[in-house]
Amino acid sequence: MESSWGDTDGREGDTDDGVSEDDYTFANDTAKIVARVLTSRAVQRILIQLQETDLFVAHWLAEYCSSHPPMTGDKFVLDMLRERPFYAADKITGKEHFVSPPELANRIMVARKALAGGMSKFDFPTYLQRTNTEVLRQHLESNSYTSGSYEKVERRRQRRA
Q1: Residue span of the structural domain in which 118 resides
Q2: Dihedral sign for Cα atoms in the order 32, 38, 41, 43
């Protein structure tokens, strides 16, 4: 039985630039996931800003997010762009507030673009190499016992638990 998972040399289905269609699919799927995470982070950032400038709109956005999860990414932004701006009265103060979901959607798009720009400066392959090394170190540490090291490992395990 032959398995094609993880054992390809990248030649099958290569395009003119030497990148396989699987690589494009993976990159596209990964970009969609990252965009959803960036949308959520952008909403968090906008909520923090609004809490300092307009609590009423911040509360509205938080309520909107509870029924329209930001993790849907582009769908979340499109839904906000379709909402009509409106005036609402604050039940406590009676003051009228203007809420513009399309304006908030634009702020979210600007914030997620800024977050994405910061990611381009992040060296992801180096990060993964460090992470992989740390995972292997922890594995080897917990599964390799040298004279007198068993007690140290057990104490660390007990502290983590």
Answers
A1: 21-122
A2: negative
